[in-house]
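The instructor's notes for this session suggest beginning with a concrete chain rather than abstract definitions. Hand out the sequence below and ask the class to guess, before any prediction is shown, which regions might be ordered.
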Amino acid sequence: MKIRRQVLAIDAPDLNVESTFWASMLGGTIVETDYDWHSIRVDGEKVLAIQLAPDHIRPQWPDGQPQQMHLDLYVEDLDSAHAEALVLGAELLQAAPDTTVPNGFQVYADPAGHPFCLCWGEG
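After discussion, reveal the predicted structure:
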């Protein structure tokens, strides 16, 4: 099997809020391809898709149902990335116990409740 491209698609009850959040987090742009589908492009490459899902159920992290997926975003400056994520509408779910260690992560939720991590170090 040859895979030409990998794109993660996530569901959201509010297409515009979710698309704006992820375009801002990833430094990309929104391409509205259909009334219920947006693509997020970074440097001209499609990196994420957002699908309108009016009946979307916000995942409960870490043990809730439905448990879905999460993104790991490796950042150069955790403090700056943390502040920006919160301004964009993220919710901190789990703070790192020690941000001075060489590798680590903090867990957040996007506006639709999808968990993602801001990570630092080599991973």
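Then share the key points. Helices lie at 15-26, 78-88. The chain has a mean pLDDT of 91.
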